[in-house]
Specification:
This protein is an alpha/beta fold. The chain is built from 29 helices and 24 strands. Strands 3-2-1-4-5-6-24 form a seven-stranded mixed sheet, sandwiched between helices. Strands 12-18-17-16-13-14-15 form a seven-stranded mixed sheet, with helices on both faces. A three-stranded antiparallel sheet has the order 7-8-9. Helix 5 crosses helix 6, helix 5 runs parallel beside helix 20 and helix 19 packs across helix 21. The protein starts with 7 loop residues before the first strand and ends in an 11-residue tail after the last helix.
Length: about 800
């Protein structure tokens, strides 16, 4: 497979986000050239568990940099300039300032962003930064933790009676990288067809606003923006519960799942308890409900519970860590864990193309290993049709048949819809997309139009209803397959097999069609037919294991695994589009939700297999920072986030606090010393925050160079000054909901003023348009199809 073999990337980034973004490109076949200072990327000397690295590069660096090349230099060097001239893409993360406050990027003074595209109109430049390059927070000193705080992620997570908590394992950086790779590839795709490159202004905080709050702002808007008098964090129940031999994770997103759980715990007598069947009812009666549940779970082992849950189709998994994950039978049988060329174990890339991994690994490069040896390359040439040359968005003219549901699959096709593709989102009047059942629909005559998550995740799409179980509906689907470029689905395999939508069937109908299948657990293995949701992935992959307070149980992150799966699927689809350009034939993609999540939780696996060290949860603390935490200021839910990564930032914190005597202790002059005495520092910061208004505290700390932030409420995220200044939320008009704000894409293309063109479609809104315009059906034929229940605009029986 060629994939991205003709794409050259020059990578000036350091740290996790840029590295994983370019890893995804390298895994797809791209030639990634990493430009480093003489000191090298700081990740070369980093271990999250403090492992003794000796003279070797760290395992996490070697995981993130397989199949890349390394040179020592800077943008000021003529040789580096020559490489940029022959590149398609430059990736950098120097931020809006000359250098990030943490000092992690090295000699940023050598980097002149403005010079990159001078004389190189075809070049795409991806600039990754905490808050974006514009807006009031653009130049603010920041860390992963303060980005989580300002984006609404921290305040959304944890027990309502405890301080809010971060998502563990730098999840913001990993999730952002999953968005950044297809963002860059989309711009390169367009540049190859038009000769017009782009400057991509990419914001990690905006990724969090999408992936880590499940569209709470839109939910609050649809509820009428009531006064905020309660905390926004809560715990799903059932979620992670005690078993006899560990922690077991459940998810009951749908009513039949909760009923299956009641059968499993031998409490069918509760079927008629409508209050307990609701999320709100279980929350109000948490103590009663958990006593019922735990009376059963604590008497059974995780393996037994998982088997019973699978029989009843209740999403369920043991909560694994970086060691126990290797016991999972499904991952073992599928060969998910492979050897890194340097000896430790890691997850393979999370998708297969035509049954094979896109590219075999080569070992991560030594510092400067390829300096002076990389061949020159002429500037990329644009070969395109007139229509492509005039396209404003990368995927105008691309047609996608979208047979996906919930959030993971639709987030993949949504990405393409926002970048110009014509996406036909297919439901039926007998089986609505499950995401329609989330939100404030109760008591409304058109309740199926009020799912806030569905509304946020399907803008720009065309809404089509076709009953695929009906023979006439199956014929319509086959006709649409003949007319599209991509077919995408994310059902459990038995559903697709029931419909006869095999790769052989798709390919026979349309030899240029790409088939993207995104089942939760894959097309093979003992768990292939099990349903899986974001909560399941967080529980299984170790994400939950490293999220939670120090003295508490594991907690789910609440959201990111859906878009993580979807955006990995989008990257796989782009690799497939490149492959089709080479061969003229469609390809078959298997992109699994669980393996996408595993790649974003890989650090736990790597630390254990490389060094024998087990990562665990640390509350709001971090191996990268000390002190780090949230501290209550006066007032309701006024939480101050502070994150000190460097000694210079510590000195600034001491000055901001008025140089108290306790802070003069020489043991606090190093991060290791501060980590040892974190409890005492937290006590002092608790007392200091309690005496300062939140905004005053943030302003004072920032003035001294200390990364600090408000823990923003995600229910009012569209009102955040940074989001407002960058136009991240766009207003749309929906026939049922009216005017409403939706988050868009977490990046800006220089030539695009607005991402959304139309609101999420109502049920079946565009069925007749697609059938008449694309398939040539008459209105009379559509009338008969509606009369027969094959198409429609209202759920059957309503």
């Amino acid at each position: 497979m060629q994939g991205l073999a003709d794409v050259r990337v020059i990578d000036f980034s350091t740290g996790y986000c840029g590295a994983y973004c370019t890893k995804l490109l390298a895994d797809g076949g791209a030639d990634v050239i990493k430009v480093e200072s003489p000191q090298g990327d700081p990740l070369r000397r980093w271990s999250a568990t403090g492992a003794d690295l000796g003279d070797a590069d760290s395992a996490i660096f070697r995981y993130l940099h397989t199949s890349k090349r390394s040179i020592v230099g800077s943008l000021a060097d003529a040789a580096v300039q020559d490489l940029v001239t022959g590149a398609d893409l430059v990736v950098e993360d120097y931020g809006a300032r000359a250098a990030l406050q943490s000092g992690a990027v090295g000699a940023a003074g050598d980097f002149d962003r403005s010079s990159l595209r001078q004389g190189r109109p075809y070049l795409v430049v991806l600039s990754i930064s905490p808050f974006g390059l514009t807006g009031p927070l653009a130049e603010r000193p920041a860390t992963e933790f303060t980005v989580q705080a300002e984006s609404g992620s921290i305040l959304y997570r944890g027990r309502p009676d405890q301080p809010p908590i971060q998502g563990g394992g730098r999840i913001s950086d990993w999730t952002a990288a999953a968005y950044a790779a297809p963002a860059a590839l989309g711009a390169v795709w367009r540049a190859r067809r038009t000769g017009i490159g782009d400057d991509i202004d990419f914001s990690i905080a905006e990724v969090n606003a999408i992936a880590a709050s499940t569209f709470s702002d839109l939910s609050h808007h649809m509820a009428g923006r009531p006064p905020i008098t309660t905390v926004c964090r809560n715990l799903e129940t059932p979620s992670i519960e005690p078993a006899r031999d560990g922690w077991i994770g459940f998810n009951t997103n749908a009513a039949h799942m909760f009923q299956g759980l009641l059968l499993m715990i031998e409490r069918a007598d509760l079927f008629d308890d409508a209050d307990l069947a609701s999320f709100g009812g279980r929350t109000r009666r948490r103590a009663e409900w958990e006593a019922i549940l735990h009376a059963w779970t604590t008497q059974h082992d995780c393996a037994e519970i998982m088997t019973l849950a699978a029989e009843l189709r209740v999403p369920c998994t043991q909560v694994y860590d970086g060691q126990s994950i290797f016991e999972n039978e499904h991952l073992r049988e599928r060969g998910v864990f492979v050897d890194n060329p340097d000896g430790f174990r890691q997850p393979r890339p999370p998708y297969l193309i035509d049954g094979s991994a896109p590219r075999p690994f080569t070992a991560a490069p030594k510092l400067g290993e390829h300096t002076g040896t990389i061949e020159a390359r002429p500037r990329p040439s644009a070969v395109s049709s007139e229509r492509a040359a005039n396209a404003k968005l990368p995927f105008e003219g691309l047609r996608i048949l979208d047979i996906t549901s919930w959030w993971a699959g639709p987030s993949s096709t949504h990405f393409f819809a926002l970048l110009g593709a014509e996406v036909w989102h297919v439901e039926s009047i007998t089986h609505l997309d499950g995401m329609r059942m989330t939100g404030y629909m109760f008591g409304r005559p058109d309740w199926w139009e009020w799912g806030h998550m569905f509304t946020a995740a399907n803008t720009n799409k065309l809404g089509v209803t076709i009953n695929i179980d009906d023979p006439a509906g199956k014929l319509l689907i086959d006709d649409l397959i003949r007319e599209c470029d991509v077919v995408a689905e994310n059902f459990v395999p038995r559903v697709i097999e029931k419909w006869g939508l095999s790769w052989e069937h798709i390919h026979k109908l349309n030899q240029r069609a790409i088939y993207l299948r995104m089942p939760a657990f894959g097309l093979s293995g003992p768990w292939r037919e099990r349903p899986g949701f974001a909560q399941t992935m967080e529980q299984l992959t170790g994400m939950a294991w490293i999220t939670g307070h120090l003295d508490d149980q594991p907690r789910i992150m609440r959201g990111p695994c859906d878009p993580i799966a979807g955006l990995h699927g989008a990257t796989a689809l782009m690799v497939a589009l490149w492959e089709r350009e080479q061969t003229g034939r469609g390809v078959f993609i298997e992109s699994t939700m669980v393996e996408a999540a595993l790649n974003c939780a890989a650090e736990q696996i790597i630390e254990y297999t490389a060094y024998g060290n087990l990562m665990t949860r640390s509350g709001n603390r971090s191996p990268q920072a000390a002190p780090q935490g949230v501290y209550a200021c006066p007032g309701f839910e006024q939480w101050l986030a502070v994150s000190v990564e460097t000694n210079a930032q510590w000195d600034g914190l001491v000055r901001a606090l008025g140089e108290p005597a306790w802070a003069a202790d020489p043991a606090l002059s190093t991060r290791a010393g501060r980590r040892e005495r974190h409890d005492a520092i937290d006590d002092a910061l608790d007392a200091w925050a309690a005496a300062h208004e939140l905004d005053d505290a943030v302003t004072l700390l920032l003035a001294h160079g200390v990364p600090a932030a408000r823990c923003w409420d995600p229910r009012i995220q569209s009102r955040h000054p940074q989001m407002v200044a960058r136009g991240f939320y766009e207003d749309l008009v929906h026939p049922s909901i009216g005017v409403h704000p939706v988050p868009t894409l977490p990046f800006k293309y220089s030539g695009v003023d607005r991402w959304t063109q139309r609101a999420t479609p109502t049920l079946g809104q565009d069925t007749r348009d697609v059938l008449t315009r694309v398939l040539g059906k008459t209105e009379a034929e559509c009338d008969q199809l509606e009369l027969d229940g094959v198409i429609g605009t209202r759920p059957k029986g309503v």
